[in-house]
Specification:
The complex is a heterodimer of chains A (191) and B (356). With 191 residues, chain A is mainly alpha-helical. Helices cover 63% and strands 4% of the residues of chain A. Residues 1-9 and 187-191 of chain A have low confidence and may be disordered. The chains are: A mainly alpha (191), B alpha+beta (356).
Amino acid sequence: MNERHASRHGQDFSIPARLLHWAMAVMIIAMLFIGAGMVATVSERHALLISIHKPLGIAILLLAIVRLGVRWRYPTPELPRHLPAWQRLAARLSHWLLYALMLAMPLIGWAMVSAAGYPVTLAPGITLPPLVPTSVTLYAALRFAHTWLALTLFALILLHLAAALYHAWMLRDDVFASMTSGTRRRGPGSE
Amino acid sequence: MSRQPPRPPRAIFRLAAIGLVIAILATAFAYVSGWLDPGWLTPDSLIDTLEADTGIHAGYRRNHAKGICVTGEFESNGQAAALSRASVFDPGRRVPVIGRLAIPGPDPNASDAMPPVRSFALLFRLPDNEQWRTAMNAMPVFSVSTPEAFREQLEASQPDPQTGKPDPDKLAAFFQAHPETKPFLAWAKTARRSSSYANIGYNSLNAFRFIDDDGNTHFVRWGVEPEAPFSPMTEAQKQDPDFLSQELRQRLADGPQRWHLIITVAEPGDPTDDATLAWPAERRRIDAGIVTVDSAQSQVDGPCRDINYDPLILPDGIEGSDDPILSARSAAYSESFNRRTREQAEAPNRHQEPQS
């Protein structure tokens, strides 16, 4: 553990973790709306949204890798001890599921586009190599997974947000602040 | 804990506020997904309408289901390089192509004598993982200018359960209400069916943007013109449901077939967002090079089978236009591809059955 970067009370997420969290929150929610919108329209928005979806997805993949490094390098605040065991377990599970999905979704998208034989175009003239060989069977499975995991991710984000707001507005503990302004401004913690 | 939890009734308001935040996000998501409006024209609903007309032929393209794969190459002569920086137009550039010649309609066993239109789809495989895909048709204009009108046309074409054929009154009413269909109808009245896939020209129908080395935009349409002279379908051919693919194989046995890739350049004021309107005949036409087809393969297991000829898969130097039919084709082809690949994955041996 790196003392220099740990917060004074050990109760806040590190500054890099907080920056990554909020930047990626905006990107991932935007990504989910773009994805849902682009497959639901036959208008010119279809192509426009796809052209944003692909580079944004790769950006999320890169940031997710950085974020895993940050998670490993900096301490993560403990949940308050007053929480029931099932809530701590739910928090732990949902957080790892969120990490898994933010890594898996871009990889599935990249593999899916590759399996369909489409060029993986990030911008005009900038293409990524295919991640897997062309195979319609593989494409069909990945296409299916991409949709349903996206819906799972959106549901999980809503759950995560509801839980965060529950901590902030109902329990009024330090959980929400540990990812925003930090708990120091609010005086000593709950220990 | 730093502060006490709120007491009712404040707790109820706070809970309600949390519920409201979640509800707003979920509703917004449902809205952009088109779930709140059953009339919303989505790629899904467009293909559903098509399937309602024609039934489902599992594993096949939802339209232009009957066709034949062809392979060959494109050789650029460099004449289009001033208009587009796409590497495919570099002087002397030769790229492999995988094509598909087909007839419109959903039935992979339809008779070749029926439809007046033939289609030619091409995938140009460019360096650096780039691709150029185009789906061209042997007609000068498209019937309608918007996907909404196309859906109406499909709905008007729905077969009557009694006769199994479209209701002529409904079709007439549709064309009456859509004067933009006139150029297409005028062509359809006089169109002569070709005796071959190889002796007719094919058009992109939609406009595209060519981007040159300096970043300037040029609106274009493109097409291919055959070297083989046109001849009409014969009486004997009408009796043979597969004459187009058989005739093509015979031709290719005698030698490669060639088309010239012709780029037509718009002038200011030419419609670039309306595929029902042809551009004036005197527009500049550039012969950009030659598409050579030297072999054909069955679409059941040939190299074109798993290709979605999405007209918006374009290399750097070519971009789509604001033609709404172009966007709709791209979106609908993707949905067709999703459905048929899913069907293929569920029953991988379906295509192994002998097809006429």
